[in-house]
Amino acid sequence: MDDVEILDVDDNNSPRQVPLKNQDLSQLSFTVGDFLSLYGWYLLAVTFTVFLLIQQLRKRRSSQSQQDSVPQTQLDASLVTKRQEAMEAARRKMQEELDAKAAIFKEKQRQQEEEKRRQKIEEWESMKQGKSCKGHKPSESSEEASSSSTVLKPKTDKKPLRSPDYNPLMGQGGSCTWRPGRRGPSGGG
Questions:
Q1: Three-state SS for 21?
Q2: What angle do CA 57, 62, 64 make, to 5 degrees?
Q3: How far apart are CA 73 and CA 92, in angstroms?
Q4: Has residue 123 been placed in a domain?
Q5: pLDDT digits (tens), the chain, 189 positions
Q6: What angle do CA 44, 45, 48 make, to 5 degrees?
Q7: Whole-number Cα distances in Å, 59 to 39, 50, 54, 65, 111
Q8: Which of 21, 44, 92, 171 has its C-alpha lying 20 to 30 A from 109's C-alpha?
Q9: DSSP H or E segment with residue 8
Q10: Residue 143 included in any domain
Q11: Per the structure, how many domains does the chain have?
Q12: What is the domain range of residue 26?
């Protein structure tokens, strides 16, 4: 492509040769070599300074991580210890609450047993005296003794459930009757 020639045509129609030149780049004759010759030492100093700063930062990070790792493990150990102590305290508190509830429950059970025993004794005593024990409440025992003038009427409103001549052994009807078993060989196999 260097061998390309451009011919200009003038008004007089005669071709003319013009060498190809980029005039914009000719003004930028400033090259990398010129840049390094002017600013090379400054560039070298800046590069060296940046390198030293990076080395210092790496040393500080590694020393901080080592210093932080020791207290971090100590903090972790103390944190774990505190958590375990808090869990133990919570467990002790829950166990004490459970023990208190169990004691209350046992006391209620004991009182109920004592009440049942006392009622049985009162029923036994009332049976010895000839009083009825059905529907007998301890609080009503004194009231019943004082109000003995009350007369109970037998209930004659209802009809008897069965006729007076009913005997279940006679087979008077119903669906439950005895039937002899089947004859023949057993069905087992």
A1: coil
A2: 90
A3: 28
A4: yes
A5: 567 777 665 556 555 566 665 555 555 566 777 888 888 899 999 999 999 999 999 998 888 777 766 666 777 888 899 999 999 999 999 999 999 999 999 999 999 999 999 999 999 998 988 876 565 454 555 555 555 555 555 555 566 577 777 777 776 566 666 777 777 777 665
A6: 85
A7: 31, 14, 9, 10, 77
A8: 92
A9: strand 6-9
A10: no
A11: 1
A12: 6-130
Tokens of 180: 């002899």
CA gap 118, 30 in Å, rounded: 120
Rounded Cα–Cα distance for residues 100 and 61 (Å): 56
**Alpha carbons 53 and 59: distance in angstroms, whole number:** 10
Nearest Cα neighbor of 122 from 110, 137, 144 is: 137
Tell me what pLDDT residue 130 has. 84
Residue 101 lies in a domain: yes
Other beta carbons within 10 angstroms of residue 123's beta carbon come to 17
- Whether 167 is covered by a domain: the verdict is no
Q: Is 170 buried (19+), middle (13-18) or exposed (0-12) by CB count in 10 A? A: exposed
